[in-house]
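Dock 3-methyl-2-oxobutanoic acid; give full complex structure.
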Amino acid sequence: MSVAKKQYKRVTTKSLVEMKSNNEKISMLTAYDYTMAKIVDGAGIDVILVGDSASNVMAGHETTLPITLNEMIYHASSVIRAVERSLVVVDLPFGTYQGNSKNALDSAIRIMKESGGHAVKLEGGSEISESISRILTAGIPVMGHLGLTPQSIYKFGTYTVRAKEEEEAKKLLEDALLLEQLGCFALVLEKVPAKLAQEVAEKLSIPVIGIGAGGGVDGQVLVTHDMLGMTHEFNPRFLRRYLDLYQEMTNAFEQYNKDVKSQDFPNSSEQY
Ligand code: KIV
């Protein structure tokens, strides 16, 4: 059992800040449904992210842009029904918070009220500061997300590493400091150079959780389906695969197919 699992019966936004000050790394994984969330929570993962990556992973869209607020609420409420210990953070989907802080607050309130999620995550820095501030005024905890922000993929053009150039790195650091100042309880940094991510983590008192951001940050997040090896076509350098579930599941399905065709399944002990 991890130190955190023993220490925190329920992980809160406050626990994460404490973990940072105690030098205990924070673990975070995605989940979009009840069954997966139950396993992730039971394994002692500190934070479950109901990511808008559900748009790719669950619905097969090419980007995260199409997923709707109703769909995110459906995924988040399934996760919430399973969770006993982890902090559940829910992504605000594309188009529900940019440009209009009243919309942002309404979207965040719907997430909290209708799914029971514990916090929301928004992508972006200074350009969405009004939305973040307004959500925070309602007492809703906000996690920031900088670096590669997949909802802006059509602006970036590619999914390559962000903030390699000095100007973008400077803006990222300024945005990170702003998010902390506004009152965000944590920050995700996606696909940025490890040195820059470490510098951000050292400058901030809130936890910085990295994906493709190296080991100098306060925690790590991966998409669960990727780390389980269910998505063979996605091979970024930062991804460590803990299983080859794609192959394992294929083997099981092929065996079942054979067993049904050959009438090996069901046998006499598998019937009433
Ligand atoms: O939607 C998601 O899964 C995310 C993680 C990649 C951080 O935002």
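Observed: Strands lie at 26-30, 47-50, 87-91, 119-121, 142-147, 186-190, 208-211, 219-222.
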